[in-house]
Amino acid sequence: MSAVLDILASAGLWAAVLRIATPLILGTLGALLCERSGVLNLGIEGIMTFGAMIGWLSVYNGADLWTGFLIAALAGGLFGALHALLTVTLGLSQHVSGLGVTLFASSFSYYVFRLAVPVAGSPPTIVPFKPIAIPGLSDLPFIGPAFFVQTPPTYLAILLALLLAYVVFRTPLGLAIRMTGENPHAAEAQGINPMAVRYGAVIAGSALMGMAGAFLTLSAFNSFFPTMVQGRGWICIALVVFSSWRPGRALVGALLFAFFDGFQLRLQTTLGGAVPYQLFLMIPYILSIAALAVMARRARVPQALMQPYRRGER
Amino acid sequence: MRFERREHRPLALVLLTPVMAIVAALALSGILIAIAGAPVLEAYWRILTGAFGSRLSTTETLTRATPLMLTGLAAAVAFRARLWNIGAEGQLYLGAIAVAAASSHLLGGLPAAIQIPALLAIGALAGMLLLLVPLWLRLRFSVDEVVTTLLLNFVAVLFVSMLIDTVLKDPTAFGWPQSQSVADAAMLPKLLARSRLHIGLGLAVVLAFILQFVQQRTVFGLRSRAAGLNPAGAVFAGVPLGRTLVVVACISGGLAGLAGAVEVMGVKGYVTTDLSPGYGYSGIVVAMLANLNPLGVVLAALFTATMFVGADGMSRAMHIPSYIADVTVALSLLTMLTAIFFTQYRIRR
Lengths: 314, 349
What we know:
The structure holds 2 protein chains of 2 kinds.
Chain A: H1 2-8, H2 11-36, H3 44-60, H4 65-89, H5 94-116, E1 132-133, H6 143-147, E2 149-150, H7 152-170, H8 172-182, H9 184-189, H10 194-220, H11 232-242, H12 247-271, H13 277-295
Antiparallel strand pairs in A: 1-2
Helix pairs in contact in A: 1-12, 2-7, 2-10, 2-11, 2-12, 3-4, 3-5, 3-10, 3-11, 4-5, 4-10, 7-8, 7-12, 8-10, 11-12, 11-13, 12-13
Chain B: E1 2-5, H1 11-35, H2 40-52, H3 55-80, H4 88-107, H5 112-141, H6 145-165, H7 200-217, H8 219-229, H9 231-236, H10 241-268, H11 279-289, H12 294-318, H13 324-344, E2 345-348
Antiparallel strand pairs in B: 1-2
Helix pairs in contact in B: 1-13, 2-3, 2-12, 3-7, 3-10, 3-11, 3-12, 4-5, 4-6, 4-10, 4-11, 5-6, 5-10, 7-8, 7-12, 8-10, 11-12, 11-13, 12-13
């Protein structure tokens, strides 16, 4: 018991929570934006992989960190355009298209990575983002080192969550996105072009997914290796349901989730040996499934989610 | 420009769809090969000869195609009923470890004629059970099974990793995490001497024919198709939706579990966490290339296995990353989806 309290009382845990949460926040916001407009984007896992790879590769080849981050976002947007072409223009099954995008984006990442970086004993590294202490706030006891000494993308992710919450609920653009996700026919009657809204939302959402991936290689780690995304994309899809499609709750959900993940990582070192480590690693996935089971009925799904929109067709 | 639904679909067009899709996918990945600085046609020629150039490579391709047929059938059966089973990878691993555990601890002493069928059933059962969890969550709590089956893949592989690290660990494997081997009597008979090709291939092909019959000619086949086309309409017409989906899940999960069992009993003899190079995920592509037709799955699995086996040799000779096979297979899923669309719609100005 005292071991648990020790873990909870360490600033290291809380600093790690924000670090673990960042890719989840960005990915969940991206998936949420797509789904608010009515498009499920299961390309997320692959888009995160590609963002991680291309962001890292750009920096490895001399770009600065923010340029790498931006390139990852642009690449994510391109895959989003591909997903939108398949699901919005052609109206294909969003499940299968998304899985196709994931399979393509991840295998394409590995191909490009292998082509650009020859096999080496240890993977080549870059110099990642450094934590920045926010003046004033970081001097607070306990709270300072726990929450206000993070790398810049973490602050950016939190700002983006607040921004997205504002855009979705407080602006005409957000209204158009929500309307398209609820009833594209009604949206069109209001002079909104549902196709354009869906394209925009899927491209922007996928750009956020690309940034989520780039955080892994440019801030959390300093190298790229295959399968590094480890199902984080699927966890984000679960977090969208958990958040009931609200950006603010997505932020809270990602933090809550990251708390459990950071906690189990530290518990692993405390209890190491007595319990197989694989049991701890299962926790995030099982937690996501449990969250889905609890929230699926309660959450209000966008009514036109996964329904293709064809002009003049019911 | 707009799309207009076709009044009828010419049979020739439907049969040509996968061919066109594969040609398009090969053309697209040809661009990637060209960017890597290799002659494209030579690369494809080497893939073809690498997969079928000798007796060894041909049997290797057929051996590779066997689990792909089973996971492809698993996806095809489920997708037909709109049960999105993306968890074949996890079901495969659970089937594999169940077989290894049962043979090394329980049934190892039995003669092959009893042990092999018993183990195949145990492997299928393990896969089934893993798919029934997400199905139950869907029926009870309306949880979308796509995400839960995907997440369970990670749980299943971690579970297998835990077992082969602890209770099922082979003490003679020099510390490698590897399961104890199945008994000699559990190994599937070979189809050809001096090769790895085993009777699992025959089993997969026979199952494809059986499923083709079941889907086309039985009440259950009709019900499962109806459940996929229009669940509300199916219920209205008296289809017991829940029960139909449970049977579909048992078949689909069972096939994926069987894939794992067959891979252990036919090829490896033991389980490691790299038993499957993504057979579960490739099975989705196989099923879509076959347009969810069980007999088509056999051919689509052959194509996929050809790419994987052929690309290994080609990449060594021409210094192209062997991931090009995964890229081509993934692209063929996207091109196939697009091609199916154009068999259903035509472009009008």
